[in-house]
Amino acid sequence: MINRLPAWVWFGGVLLTFSAGMVNGIAYLSFTNQAVTHVTGSITLVSVGMARGDWLSVGRLLAVVLTFFMGAFLSGLIIRGETLRLGRGYGFILLFESFLLLNSLWLYQHSSFGGQLVASLACGLQNAMVSTFSGAVLRTTHMTGILTDIGAKLGRWLRGAPMDKRRLLLYCRLLAGFTTGGAFGAFLFTHLLYNSLMVPALITAFAGIAYMIHAIRLRRQHKSLYIAG
């Protein structure tokens, strides 16, 4: 049961799901008409493409899945351990994600499928960055697990089991963040086209810089307390 969630977890988690929702919505509305965050759907389309003999679609879908995997792999190389805590390489990953999104924007503008691949790489990087906090599984680029947890917890609660209200609220906020992000990304795309990717790129850059500043301040506070003690 989550007893207390730091403000940076509440704010950062929702902000990142909002950003991922935007990226996914924009990617879906691009010339590829293909999402980049939900791997399950992409693998299903791979199966359908194989059955139909549409090997071009199969190759492209597998490339998107592979780049998502590579993003998660890179995140695992940078961040050791699966529990969310301050003092790890989250700031660097977020800044790197921002850089990838800017590259994706440029590639999309030049009608290159590489834009889709780089966006998928960025999403895999982000999704693996946050694994668990206080026993709660956190995913910020797709909502299947989040929605499953919400439904299961409500079902157990109706059977008389205790409800972890903080965890349920966290999951609901993540779901709302992703949903509103997708809607906002689609709205911006109708006006700015691929330039709308500037917004999630700025969000992740802001989050990365803010995290680094917060981590440095905490280290200084701990150092001061250690010296004073």
UniProtKB/TrEMBL annotation:
Keywords: Membrane, Transmembrane, Transmembrane helix. Pfam families: DUF1275. It comes from the Bacteria. The chain crosses the membrane at residues 7-31, 58-78, 90-108, 168-191, 197-216. InterPro entries: DUF1275. PANTHER family: SLR0142 PROTEIN, UPF0700 TRANSMEMBRANE PROTEIN YOAK. This is DUF1275 domain-containing protein. It comes from Endozoicomonas euniceicola.
